[in-house]
Amino acid sequence: MKIRSLSSVQPDFDKQLAQLLSFESTQDEKLEATVASILSDVRKRGDMALLEYTRRFDRLPIEVAASLEIPQTELKLAFDNLPTDQRVALEQAAQRVTSYHQKQLQTSWTYTDEEGTLLGQKISPIDRVGLYVPGGKAAYPSSVLMNAIPAKVAGVSELILVVPTPDGVRNSLVLAAAYLVGADRVFTIGGAQAVAALAYGTETIPKVDKIVGPGNAYVASAKRRVFGEVGIDMIAGPSEILVICDGKTNPDWIAMDLFSQAEHDELAQAILLTPDAEYAIAVQASASRLIEQMPRRDIIRTALESRGALITVRDLDEACAISNRIAPEHLELSVDNPHQWLPILRHAGAIFMGRHTSEALGDYCAGPNHVLPTSGTARFSSPLGVYDFQKRSSLIEASKIGASTLGDIAATLAYGEGLQAHAQSAIYRKI
Question: Burial of 81 by CB count in 10 Å (0-12 exposed, 13-18 middle, 19+ buried)?
Fold first, then answer.
């Protein structure tokens, strides 16, 4: 396996970096047409369409598909029957994720100006949220924790979880996680049809106010299409990791960190920035040796050879500048004094500081959310958090004096905009 090597001193480095970073999530016309048809069908026919798609895509017998909801007793049984080490790990991760997100809670506030007018902001949780969890034989209990816990901490009244169960396979870890986080209702549906059900509501599936959680291309397309009818968290691209290393960390560690994201899928991106050219060579050697140990080596190899890079830079200052340009989902600062570089690192979904902080800790149990902006969107967006499940209402209560003072200002501006009724409404209340 050969990971491409780049150097920032090459005359065409900027062009090469742009090509490396380019990722077109081209919308497949056939896929888009299929998703549009499914959304429309579920919106029109409700449960009947939902059951048909569930039987077709998840290959469920009619009698199984007809009972879409998993009872709380089955969720509890899945939790109780987990092997002890898995149950303890799940509880510990949930506790840490909860503690972190409790610190994000925002509270309402008000103040009164010098004329007695009260101004402020009222913070309210979203009423009902839908959580999409990939299902089947692949287990993503961490996705349940990271999406559900901030919603619960925010005070969301009802959390509706959907998880596909191809061939009727129900993953016990996912069900146990759903029980642990207190999911109110859990349904065995997936794909674009699940997004449609959550967005529009059916006879069985309640309509939600926001949909969060990862999914395949059909799920992503469906979420994009229903935005406006409901809120969504984000449209995520392939997973990314960028490692800045001064050349002093065990190269095996860094190679495995690159693998940790490359194993997600063939389009994942893993990049190393280092001022030490010999270190880049050492990481390449580690990667070539360690790859054969990986069960998902074919996926890792494809990702690293097509979208990975070992980049030699002039110094760590330049590494940080390039990192800001990339705006990675995950950024590892594997250097002596990572805090020194934080002031100049402006764009990253999550920053992992120090040689002992692997990105994998953030994926599962450190505490911060692992739902992060990808494809450079960290330039303007943030990790999923409690704030994504709260909304704000402005508060205004004018005093008599305030109504006069503000009325004059408002009327002047309203007349300037040609809005006579606005102006008259404001000045009617003058004393």
Answer: exposed
Q: In whole angstroms, what is the distance from residue 179 CA to residue 144 CA? A: 10
What distance in Å separates the CA atoms of residue 131 and residue 151, rounded to the nearest whole number? 10
User: What DSSP string describes 224-289?
Assistant: HHHBTTBEE-----S-EEEEEE-S-S-HHHHHHHHHHHHTT-TT-EEEEEES-HHHHHHHHHHHHH
Report how far apart, in Å, the C-alpha atoms of 40 and of each of 18, 86, 199 are.
Answer: 39, 41, 11
Confidence class of residue 136 from pLDDT cuts 50, 70 and 90? low
Q: Taking all residues of the chain, what is their mean pLDDT, rounded to a whole number?
A: 95
- The DSSP secondary-structure symbol of 314 reads S
Q: What CA–CA distance (Å, rounded) separates 389 from 211?
A: 10
Written as six digits, the tokens of 197 are 């059900």
pLDDT tens-place string over residues 241-263: 999 999 999 999 999 999 999 99
Q: Find tokens 């402006």 and name the residue.
A: 346
Domains defined for the chain, CATH in brackets: 5-25+237-366 (3.40.50.1980), 29-232 (3.40.50.1980), 398-427 (no CATH)
Write the burial class of residue 162 (CB in 10 Å: 0-12 exposed, 13-18 middle, 19+ buried).
buried
Q: Answer positive or negative: Cα dihedral of 93, 95, 99, 102.
A: positive
Residue 124: beta bridge partners? 391
Q: How far apart are CA 251 and CA 247, in angstroms?
A: 8
C-alpha dist (Å) from residue 288 to 20, 284, 305: 21, 6, 11
Residue that has been written with the tokens 């090597």 in this structure: 5
Q: Would the pLDDT of 26 be above 60?
A: no
The dihedral through the CA atoms of 367, 191, 77, 150 has a sign that is: positive
Which are the catalytic amino acids?
A: 329-330
Residue 137: its pLDDT value, please? 54
- pLDDT tens string 46-95: 999 999 999 999 987 766 656 799 999 999 999 999 999 999 999 999 99
Per DSSP, the residues of 175-210 read HHHHHHHT-SEEE---HHHHHHHHHH--SSSPP-SE
CB atoms near residue 369 (< 10 Å)? 24
Residue-level pLDDT at 24: 65
Instruction: Provide the token pair at 301.
Output: 């190899």
Buried b / exposed e along 119-151 (16+ C-beta atoms within 10 A) = eeeebebbebbbbbbbbbeebbbbbbbbbbbbb
